[in-house]
Amino acid sequence: MRHCPQPSYLQPPRAPPKTYQLLLKTHKLTIFLTVHQSSTIEAIKHEALSALTSDDEGDEVEVPRVKSTEDFELCRAVKDKGKTNAMLSTPTSYDTLDPSNPIKGLLSNWEVLYVQFRDEEGNLMPVNVSQPSLLDDEDEDPRRAAPAPDSPVAVGKGKRKARPE
């Protein structure tokens, strides 16, 4: 008798990954982080601080200067009926994440988090994120179709005639 593999709906669910890939967004900047599932939000804040304070000569992004993890909080877009507001063009509300919480069970792999900076008085400022355009600035207008050829061309499937030399 031959052994057939079980259909996917009968197989046990996959175990969560041991390391998570997270995206931190602020202004026009996206920071990619790899963290262990047992990490806390505080550990992610330290990684974010390292990235935010690194000196990048070609940095054109206007991100507020930070000196410690007290200068910002991490948050995520509020879920609305199974969809996050991040899927919309402009998310409207965010939940601040408690630094003492572990990420396991709180976040998912490839989740997008947002950086919320504090002003001089220590008050949280609104999240500032710019969504990039899906079209390249140098691309032509996508609505304009290519011009039709002047002479009719026979379309053959998979075969070409040899060109005269």
Describe, in plain words, how this protein is organized in 3D.
The protein has 165 residues and is mainly beta. It contains 1 helix and 7 strands, in the order E-E-H-E-E-E-E-E. The strands form 2 sheets. Strands 2-1-7-3-6 form a 5-stranded mixed beta sheet, with helices on one face. Strand 1 and strand 2 form a beta hairpin. The chain starts with 18 loop residues before the first strand and ends in a 48-residue tail after the last strand.
DSSP helix fraction: under 10%
Number of DSSP E strands: 7
Structural class: mainly beta
Could you give a short account of the major beta sheet? 5 strands, mixed
- C-alpha geometry: flat
**DSSP helical segment count:** 1
Strand residues, percent: 15-25%
- Distance N terminus to C terminus? 63 Å
Low-confidence residue ranges: none
Q: Radius of gyration, Cα only, in angstroms?
A: 24 Å
H/E element string?
A: EEHEEEEE
- Oligomeric state of this protein: single chain
Average predicted confidence as pLDDT: 80
- Output the strand order for the largest sheet: 2-1-7-3-6
